[in-house]
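Pipeline run #58 for the internal structure catalog. This entry was flagged by the ingest filter as a single-chain record with no existing model, so it goes straight to prediction. Upstream metadata was stripped on purpose; only the residue string is passed forward. Reviewer on rotation: M.T. Logging verbosity set to normal.
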Amino acid sequence: MLRFDCVSLNYGSFRALSDISLEARDGELVVLLGANGAGKSSIFRAASGLEPATGHIRFGQRELVGMRPSQVVEAGVVQCPEGRKLFPGMSVLRNLMLGAYVHRADGAGNRRRLEEILALFPILDQKKDDPAGSLSGGQQQMVAIGRAMMGRPRALLLDEPSLGLAPLVVRQMFEVIQQINRAGTTVLLAEQNAFAALKVAHRAYVLELGRVVMEGDSDSLLRNPDIRRAYIGA
């Protein structure tokens, strides 16, 4: 279980998170909903060790607050950041292998993991020697997710994976996210495409101004008129 207890985070004098408490149980796909600035990315940066936070973030029996980012990955929590953050001039293969850095001593394990990812995203096998920057937006998002999966996550943090993608590609992307989750990886998904996210998630939390203001199972939130007006447009 990935659990946040009373987690707060400041950027200078700006309070980005205020006593956030939420959890993703083993094997769940949990979505974080909220507008830009609601705190979704800050939750991920706190969990990944990229920003100092107060409170407790536990994965299983391990406390993540205070860990270096590499230690968080070794513990089994891996983030796929918003905006993909690829190296456009490097090949698809080299971008993917960067995700295996903390496991670099396990060459055989990394090769097996790479085969699994190329089977998940067959187009990347065809384009593995191409510069990552030459790929379409959807293909670049596949590389970003594949790179995160090379870190062998037991909990995967996905930050706005549908951003800027065509509707058909968004549907394909969420099918892959479901596939990853069904294979046993816990997924915490930050997403503005509320309808698509709630269709695949087990549960959801709604964030506003760094606080959790609502939570529930995905079906109940899909039926909630306030959620539909605010995030689905119906």
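catalog note: The chain has a mean pLDDT of 94.
catalog note: The two ends are 34 Å apart (CA to CA).
status: ready for reviewer M.T.
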